Amino acid sequence: MRYDARDGxxxxxxxxxxxxxxxxxxxxxxDLIYLYRRCLSGSRYNMASLSQxxxxxxxxxxxxxxxxxxxxxxxxxxxxxxxxxLHEHPVSRDTPLIVCSVVREEELxxxxxxxxxxxxxxxCQELIAALDQAMLTxxxxxxxxxxxxxx
Length: 151
What we know:
CATH class: Alpha Beta
CATH architecture: 3-Layer(aba) Sandwich
Order of helices and strands: EEEHEHEEEHEHEH
Number of domains: 1
């Protein structure tokens, strides 16, 4: 919500999303899943989570996330390979991928398709800011694609 007071008048501008944004969190740490759920409670983000990296490619068909937050340290899958596969998968290739991990290899993550990188431990404000930035990036990409098609 934004307020603007000029010339003795007050203008109130409210922006409300038409639907909640679907976030898929892929992390095997149940404490972090709980933290993320608390962080996103009451926000525009609707969270789903998976603790098994091996099920992600199947589940994205059903979940159809708007953004994916991926831990690289998964017990049943190579996080780097999963990142690359998500970046190439038909359902998720245009989906922003946020790597959130203790592994600090931002250059490699970005090269494999990550949109953004967060270092653990992550604070609620950082998570929401990263999700907001990822969604802006997605919207800008879609606008460029639409403009390119219409040109």
